[in-house]
From TrEMBL:
Organism this protein belongs to: Niallia oryzisoli
Phylogenetic placement of the source organism: Bacteria, Bacillati, Bacillota, Bacilli, Bacillales
Pfam (any one): CheR_N
Enzyme Commission (EC) number: 2.1.1.80
Entry protein name: protein-glutamate O-methyltransferase
Record's keyword terms, sorted: Methyltransferase, S-adenosyl-L-methionine, Transferase
Amino acid sequence: MSGDYEQFTYQIKMKTGIDLALYKEAQMKRRLTSLYEKKGYGSFKEYFSAINRDHTLFNEFLDRITINVSEFYRNYKRWEVLEKTILPKVLKRTKRPRVWSAACSSGEEPYTLAMIMAKYLPLSEVKILATDIDENVHSRAKLGIYPERSLQEAPEDIKRKYFIKEGGFYKVADEIKRTVSFKTHNLLADPFGTSYDLIICRNVLIYFTEEAKELLYHKFAKSLNPEGILFVGSTEQIFNAGQYGFEVEDTFFYKKSL
Ligand SMILES: C[S@@+](CC[C@H](N)C(=O)[O-])C[C@H]1O[C@@H](n2cnc3c(N)ncnc32)[C@H](O)[C@@H]1O
């Protein structure tokens, strides 16, 4: 059985470049086994030949491994800290911060960031890079239409200012959409950009092995300017941040040391 999974991860890597071995094994295996059993397959071997032939099955597979759940202002208190204490310090160092929302899912996170940055800068000067491994989420992000539950933590004034309500759905204003460029990027395989002042990477590191996480912390530190900030998810604090060249700036915010 475990040889079956190993062979599968090898085949997927050859086909897509995605290295499943860098995701926590027990969790990933469970997610995929329940999916293939539901589809009537008996092993990873059978499942691979099926997804190799059938595009819809392949997309379902991608959807299952990528766990795209997101929300505007997810963990509201943390975004409040970003707005009130972190961002003013970043903007003291530069009025044109380079910002990156990594593993951005369908856009809720970079759009939230744009709405917050707009409190300090004209929107025409806000530029955010947003990346995710899953190409399918980019079209959803660009469409910018979300169900009400995606906005449950968004403040009322923000909802009024930046969303148009259409039936049960909320459409993000074009002025916000224009600030974000979406690109496909695999955190575990693709090169990172440099000279960022703020990197947001939330609720994806939990799926990776310890080794993969450590490598990523080093890469994030390298990508940031001195005193640049890494903002992680609310279950993802970095133990021994110092070993990667970070200092704790606030809970779930790490500053690259000078
Ligand atoms: C649970 S969502 C988190 C979305 C958002 N950051 C948030 O906190 O609401 C996880 C996202 O990570 C993306 N992802 C998974 N593996 C990835 C990888 N190796 N590189 C880049 N993105 C990845 C998934 O496609 C998914 O959109």
